[in-house]
């Protein structure tokens, strides 16, 4: 019995390491997709990080974002435009990156605590139910459960994005020597709708991946 538990724990650790590594790779690749929109470029980072928040456990999500930022800080070109180095973190767009370090733990813990408090299954647990368990639920119960879980994951993505945008706006204001309103209009306002679309897409993809790897 002890051997089975040990193998199970080892398997879980290996799975977590693999998921964390994959999340970091997705964050890096998403940052390379750049569309210039004024002083702040459009990238898919918000999509990738929201995806990680929904799919990963809070601890794994925190390790993934910390690992991503550490790689970028030492010069690995994982930031937008295939850049890396401390200069990016200290530059006008660096606040968004620091915001990731704050926003991911807050959003991940919020998602975990509210799921536990309301008894809502995570995407991974929900898709892992047996066929008998799913059949036992009525259509209304299944629909209500889906929309509660889906809505909660959207809220977590919004929380993360608001924190990242606030940090990004503050650093842009300081580095660019502009007031908060100017910084907001330049660094945040053009991306509000796009970021929300990325959040929705990330949650949908996270659910699909959870279904595939259960």
UniProtKB/TrEMBL annotation:
InterPro entries: BioY (IPR003784). The keyword Membrane applies. It is found in: Cell membrane. The chain crosses the membrane at residues 16-34, 40-56, 68-90, 96-114, 150-174, 180-206. It holds the Pfam family BioY. The keyword Ion transport does not apply. It comes from the Bacteria. It is a multi-pass membrane protein. Keywords: Cell membrane, Membrane, Transmembrane, Transmembrane helix, Transport. PANTHER family: BIOTIN TRANSPORTER BIOY, BIOTIN TRANSPORTER BIOY-RELATED. Belongs to the BioY family. This is Biotin transporter. It comes from Adlercreutzia shanghongiae.
